[in-house]
Amino acid sequence: MYNEDEILFARTMIGVLKNVEYMCKRAESKTWGKDAWKKIVVCVVSDGRAKINPRTRALLAGMGVYQEGIGKQQVNGKDVTAHIYEYTSQVGMVIKNDVVQLIPKQQPVQMLFCLKEKNQKKINSHRWFFQAFGRVLDPNICVLIDAGTKPGGSSIYHLWKAFDLEPMCAGACGEIKAMLGTGGKNLLNPLVATQNFEYKMSNILDKPLESAFGFISVLPGAFSAYRYVALQNDKNGQGPLEKYFAGEKMHGANAGIFTANMYLAEDRILCFELVTKRNCHWILHLGDDNLLGNVGRILSVVFTWLYGVSLMTCFVLSMGNRPAGSGPYYMAMVVFWAILFV
């Protein structure tokens, strides 16, 4: 997260806590059950100590996962990169009349809070998650959720189930639904109605067909999941994460115009690299995001996304049949996207 307010943060955290409770209630499951919370770690990465919303920070402190006043900019003359807090919390929250209230909960949840000292953008936050905490925790499945996205009461479980049923599934996503308000009143806003239509068309037409081919062009960063072992680089340091994190250093003059703009759609790069991973045959499967109500933010997000998508599609087609590629799905994917693009 960046500087999302307490309402957006609470909306996401409430959904995550409900999913933990749901998994703990699955008494007949071989994987989950009463002690399922011991197999789950909720990791919150905040991009910049000076940028985090004070009220959101207060919520984290109320949950016991943050302590005010102990963070320092330097230790022994060396600059601090991030502040890491760990706690098993039994504090939940509810939203009443646009006010977040903390409540006691019997169900524990293991939490890890990483507060980065400087604002270093989204890809750097993902680097912390995958290459720092991931190496220590060695998770099976990683679920990425943007602050403000409200997962359904069992959404995370059903994402996990997609990996459980398909051993070669490297990534999965579900349907992102618009928050329409009571009686769908938010549809009166033409911007919300437009986004709702786009989401529905994508989830009804695009993603099911892409999933049938084993390649979903983009797993939305707002709510998606990945198999950790599929993301790992090979012994030479080449692989999905290596290509994905290359975008972190492409904001300066070292990157070409084509490459720099392609990384505006970095989620698509990760999907492409997973499916085309050398000597593997991983596939992607189809298993609540907040909408933007401001015209300026809508146009900024849409134009950035479309521009990056166009260049990424050109890149996919330009690869042709990658030598020593990834298996039987690759050629079908190239032909399919070539037909659609034409």
TrEMBL record:
> Which compartments is it annotated to reside in?
Cell membrane
Bilayer-spanning residue ranges: 298-317, 324-341
Any one GO CC term of the record = cell septum
Which reaction is recorded as catalysed by this protein? [(1->4)-N-acetyl-beta-D-glucosaminyl](n) + UDP-N-acetyl-alpha-D-glucosamine = [(1->4)-N-acetyl-beta-D-glucosaminyl](n+1) + UDP + H(+)
Topology of this chain in the membrane: Multi-pass membrane protein
Q: Does the keyword Chloroplast apply?
A: no
Q: What does the UniProt keyword field contain? A: Cell membrane, Cell wall biogenesis/degradation, Glycosyltransferase, Membrane, Transferase, Transmembrane, Transmembrane helix
Pfam families this protein is in? Chitin_synth_1
Any keyword Hydrolase?
A: no
Q: Which InterPro entries match?
A: Chitin_synth
Q: Which domain of life is it from?
A: Eukaryota
What is one GO biological process annotated to this record? ascospore wall assembly
Could you tell me one molecular function GO term of this UniProt entry? chitin synthase activity
What EC number(s) does its UniProt record assign?
Answer: 2.4.1.16
- Principal subcellular localization: membrane
Q: What does this protein do?
A: Polymerizes chitin, a structural polymer of the cell wall and septum, by transferring the sugar moiety of UDP-GlcNAc to the non-reducing end of the growing chitin polymer.
Q: What protein family does this chain belong to?
A: Belongs to the chitin synthase family.
Q: Entry's PANTHER family?
A: CHITIN SYNTHASE (PTHR22914), CHITIN SYNTHASE 1 (PTHR22914:SF9)
Q: What is the name of this protein?
A: Chitin synthase
Please tell me the species this chain comes from. Chaetomium globosum (strain ATCC 6205 / CBS 148.51 / DSM 1962 / NBRC 6347 / NRRL 1970)
